[in-house]
Amino acid sequence: MLATSLPLPVTFTLSSLQTCKKTKSTPVHCSSPQPPQSPMDLQPKRVAVCGGGVIGVCTAYFLAKKGASVTLIEKSSVACAASGKSGGFLALDWCDGGPLASLARASFNLHRSLAEEFSGAESYGYRPLTTLSLTVTESEKQSPPSRDKNLPSWVDGPARGLRAIGSTETTAQVHPQMFTKTLLSKAVEKYGVEVVIGKVDSVGVEGGRVESVVLEGGRVIESDSVVLALGPWSGKFEMLSSLFRVYGLRAHSIVLEPKEPDAITPHALFLSYYPEQGGKPMDPEVYPRPTGEVYLCGMSSEVELPEDPEQIAGDPESLEVLKRVASTVSSHLGEGEARLKAEQACFLPCTDDSVPVIGEIPGVKGCYVATGHNCWGILNGPATGAAMAELIVDGQATVVDLARFSPARFVGRRRKG
């Protein structure tokens, strides 16, 4: 841990990794005179947000909306990793009963508000969905069981056990890459966010307070606050890796373009899929999109995180399984009936306690982290960004209580891994 007061400037570098991981408040009315503001108080807070995924972009958007001067730094391209390759599924109440409940509910409602403000249906494929649970047994493909009349017409494979698990009031979707890019575009156009393409080399700290971000090549971006929102790559910073572990779970997906897209109704499918060769059931997911595409995902495992998110490669066998799932679930998604538009993989940022890390880093004033959202990053991006903006600008988050997510929870714990 860092001391809160350091006599000399300290720079945290990526190269040093090997050596060093609603309560509603009652307003208080005060009649005493307030001290005059200093010139510095009148200046907009300068914030560098590191990471161009959905968490970083949402944070930059809400910070700028609150009047901060924001620089968004992204190594390669915006939404190039999980924020561009995930399913974009949104659920109001699926996290109820757990630590993410208030965050998920607040964010689901923020998604709805943003879609109304920015014509989300047209801009990034926002729409409510009916969500179904099904059991599919691959070996029954040639002699399928009697068909449930309540199944969507395009689901003509060996499906049984139909159960509704989400309605158009409680589940929805966005195209994640289009959502992220639309929000960033609004942040730039309306609030003047600056986007810088470059790799963060270090975070400068002096006297226990953050003062800058240094990019590879030497460019220094002076900052009053820094937000590290680099997904699983957040763990590349020693000030984080020494405190907690954030790792990447590689998940695979394919995107299909059916010849008859109008035949595919807006029903998301969560499957218990029994492969023909036996073994434990898999849990792939199927998301038809208003663009006419159908997205399928699944087959996840913890593997080594590559340095460059643009260079992530999927496991060929896992991708083939997803193609087989598609053709088994629906003849509309089989070979010859649908064009394979993409086969890909991404890394979901995870923590050892399965709870995101959102808040100020202990001992480093002005340095914040927002990572570890696992498969709920797209859902929880807006509330995370709004809460971070409140925390940084106002000193306290009100949209959601961030105490459960604070990195301070790891202080004194024995870090895994």
From TrEMBL:
This is FAD dependent oxidoreductase domain-containing protein. PANTHER family: OXIDOREDUCTASE TDA3-RELATED (PTHR13847:SF150), SARCOSINE DEHYDROGENASE-RELATED (PTHR13847). It comes from the Eukaryota. Transmembrane segments: none annotated. It comes from Salix suchowensis. Residues 46-391 form the FAD dependent oxidoreductase domain. It holds the Pfam family DAO.
